[in-house]
Amino acid sequence: MAAAESVRQAFTRIEPLAGDVQRYVRDTLRPFCDASSYAFVDRKKTSTSLGEKLEGGRVDAWSKIDDLYACTIVVPVSSHEGRVLQQLDKSFATRTIRSRVDTQKAPDVFRFDGARWYGTVKPDAATRYQPGVGELLFEVQVVTAFEYAWIVVTHDLVYKADNTDWQRQRLAAQLKATVEQAEVVINAFDSASSVILESPWQETAA
Q1: Which of 70, 80, 77 is nearest to 119 (CA)?
Q2: Each residue of 100-117: pLDDT tens digit?
Q3: 39: part of which helix (H) or strand (E)?
Q4: How far apart are CA 153 and CA 168, in angstroms?
Q5: What is the DSSP letter of 35?
Q6: What does DSSP assign to residue 136?
Q7: pLDDT at position 58, please?
Q8: How far is 138 from 69, CA to CA, in rounded Å?
Q9: Could you give phi then psi for residue 109, rounded to 5 degrees?
Q10: 3-class secondary structure, 71
């Protein structure tokens, strides 16, 4: 209980900074996403979820928390990722990028591997807000439409469940494999369609 209270107090002090970062990132990225027909979703971490992350051992220091504010940009297919990452590098101060090709995984493993960009508000923009805004690290995930659907459907069922369940994790991995297979076919649509056996159909011929 004492640890939870200390987290709550620390969160209360830093939450206004996350709010300023959220407002700036929204104002910066939403016009770009709207013009590109990309979906934009964001959230601020709650004190409860932050406490769970700290107590679970996923991070061992406040300085390593990189998603007090996080947003997701949903693109049609993975070939759009490069354009989004370029926009992020142009708009903010980049700290690190974890692309899908950087994520090590065995060929028979299927899990989340979307691009994750980490950075801060640029110093000149941060001066418009309260001190500390330019130091708050935030996360931007760049995922495809199929990946986002998979995340939304499986996240609470598997990763927010009260206990670890092998069968649920297995099913989530199988669904991710299906998503990946669909995207492979879409990315190679022209060449993949060329091997489809064609049937005669009057309307197509007309």
Answers
A1: 70
A2: 877 778 888 888 888 999
A3: strand 39-44
A4: 12
A5: H
A6: -
A7: 62
A8: 5
A9: -110, 135
A10: strand
50, 85, 52, 51: which is closest to 69 by C-alpha? 50
Task: Please name the residue that has the structure tokens 């065995």.
Answer: 106
CA gap 181, 78 in Å, rounded? 13
Distance CA(62)–CA(11), nearest Å, equals 10
Strand partners, 43: 70
Task: Give the integer Cα–Cα distance in Å for 158 and 109.
Answer: 16
Helix (H, G, I), strand (E, B) or coil at 46: coil
| Residue type (1 letter), 90 | K
Return the C-alpha torsion angle 58, 61, 66, 69, nearest 10.
Answer: 100
β 69-75/39-44 pair status: antiparallel
116 phi/psi in degrees, rounded to 5: -125, 120
Neighbouring-strand partners of residue 73? 40, 142
Q: Helices in the chain by DSSP H: which ranges? A: 2-36, 47-55, 81-91, 123-126, 145-154, 166-187, 189-193, 202-205
What is the total residue count of the chain? 206
Cα 151 to chain centroid, rounded: 9
Copy the structure tokens of residue 169: 């994790």
In contact, 73 and 40? CB cutoff 8 Å: yes
Q: What is the pLDDT of residues 60-87, one digit of tens each?
A: 666 667 788 999 999 999 999 999 999 9
For the whole model, what pTM was predicted?
A: 0.85
Q: Report d(CA 108, CA 6) in Å as an integer.
A: 42
